[in-house]
Amino acid sequence: MSPVVVNYGLDSLPGDGVRRAVSIGKFDGVHRGHSQVIDQLRRMAGKAETTVITFDRHPHVTLRPGEAPLPIASDSQKVELLAQAGISRVVVLPFDHELSSLSHEDFSRVVLAEGLSASVVLVGQDFRYGFGGAGTVETLRAEGDHWGFRVEGVEDFCQEEGERISSTMIRGHLEKGEVAEAAKLLGRYHAVRGEVGSGARRGRELGYPTANLSQPLEGLMPADGVYATIVTHRGIRYPAATSVGVNPTFGELTESVVESHLLDEKIDLYGETIRVEFVEFIRGMRAFPSADHLAAQMSADEKVIRGIVKDVPGG
Q: Which of 49, 143, 178, 259 is labelled catalytic?
């Protein structure tokens, strides 16, 4: 896989005259529907550089504060996933007041024509852009005629059980702990990533030492519960039991945390960055009458999780 080129912000656009095939969207989660769009972009690109324009936040963060959904993936996760899908350049535009104030004519000129030298632009049929969302596919085609790029529409979007796959659908599954259902729509296991910090060492006392991820995390944290997971550290994948929640048996936490117990390894991961992939939901989080009862349940959870992750590639 060739290294992806990343441009951040309007001032970073190359403006070098190199022809580019461009698609525009949030691409949150880079799910199976997005993969289909990327495949279409690559087919139509020819010798042009495949480029995705995406945004560092949901537009509602700027336009409707308090209404924006949490992102499925961080910017860096998104860039990595787009690179794995075969995109050569990713342009991340901060969706701030400067960008949201650009007219649709100025967006086409500044970003697509002068900034990226677009030869073709691939967008969905409901695509809107520019100040107040005044720009449509029709205005984009007219501007493309003026600036020398053609506009293509996304082919039929990938569906699951008759419903169009969307980031909203995936987010809904994750918020219910339905990680196996989310994985089907993503085309891979959902993952969070973060640095291992210090915890209360309750797991170690019970014989189940855990790696506790510090906030902020990259990636959307699924609903509280216990999960079969795969933990990756420095390229090596380990089967793990992961809990998400406040550890109600001891009542020491006020916010949910991600704690992973590697099943067959004892590694000091403090200060290291790990990725946690969520394979399957095991049970909900609940308080136990004693530490011994909790330890017994953790042992039972481990047996179930071993049966699940043994079939996971690389697990």
A: 259
